[in-house]
Please model this.
Amino acid sequence: MSATGKRAVADLLDDDGDAHNSLLHSQGADGHRPPKKQQTSTPSSKSYLSTLSYPSTSTPILKQTPFQQPSQLISFSYTPEYVLEFTDSALRYFVDPPVGAKLDYGYERWVRKPDERGRLDGLLKAISHIRKDPMRAPNLPEIGLVSWRGVMTKMLAAPYEEREGWDLNVMFVNGTLYLEEHLTEARLKEKNDMEPRQRRQSYFGYAFESYCTSETPTRQNGPPSSGAPFGWGGDVNTNVQWCSVVRTKLGDTRMVIGGEVDCIRGRYTGKTDSFVELKTSLVIRGPHDEGRFEKKLLKFYLQSFLLGVPEILVGFRTPAGVVTTTQTFKTIHLPRLVRGKPDAWDPLICLDWGHRFLTFLRKVVQAGDDVSSSSVWRVRFVPSSGVSVELLSGQPDIDEVVNGEERVGFLPRWYWEEVAAHQQTPVKQTTATAATLTDWQL
Model:
């Protein structure tokens, strides 16, 4: 890609294949605060609070947790009215952004989709659609986990998260874990009532997407309408989304993950190899800024890696929202940018933690004599401590999850009944893409 004023944030380090030592594990008793030592509690039918301690980030990993290259199952679009349709109407194509793009343009016309509960409904509609399609159904694996890419990113990034905790709601139905982010009404109000300065800065990322995308593979260079600046791709409506649903595998857990894709480069083939992720970040003015940016790269990396996005374009902007430079990063190269640095992150630690967490979670939800397919567990992550998992038994807690909607737990009733009738059976699998593919290694 021809980037405007390319500026290397850090030189790529040689991939020297450093050996990694094993991460030690130990077990301990249940507790109401996740212990800081490496230990896990033993789930039992008498106690529904279980804990998994924070992983060590100082001990390298010897054995890599396998991660299967994501393969797209289906895509879908949300219309300007936020109606889901199984078309590619919202797909956008990448085009080079203009020099000096002003990211505050169109702010007053921004149609902002309010933050809502992290429901899985769109992803579940896609799974249902696949199961009913005789051409697609054979590609749908026995599913061990269903979740949005954002939830999985938070979960895998936990070993390096120092400030923000998170809560998840979990259900276990016919052998499948369903994970949604739990947001209280107070938290939703906080997210929707942003301070004006924070709200404007959040808009900058969406405006950058408009400058970088087009409805056609090449930008139409006709006369700008309504005084729009050159390169403006259209006013921002965050109801409009193009989403990809992929199958992948972490360790022994087969996963179906969905997430929004910003745009594609060139011709769309139905695969993930043309996907492009777009990001903005403040210009780097010195070592301190560089260190902050390199920490952000972990989430950039995980977001793209989980969905099979091979390329990330970052627009570096001023505090006022003027893009000064752009830089293209290959997703698989990001770990090399930070390797050997004082605060380096290691994706192998993230994947090892993710595998341990999902193994632990599956054991917890399978324990107990009085749990059912309608049971809901609450996972709580506390930075520098670990995670706790608790079965929700009180009616107020259940009511908060259901939120007065037609649901069983947090699953739509129609889907819960469909799965109950389906009773997951083995499906003949196509040959899986191994985790050792040369183009999708860590």
The longest strand covers residues 241-250.
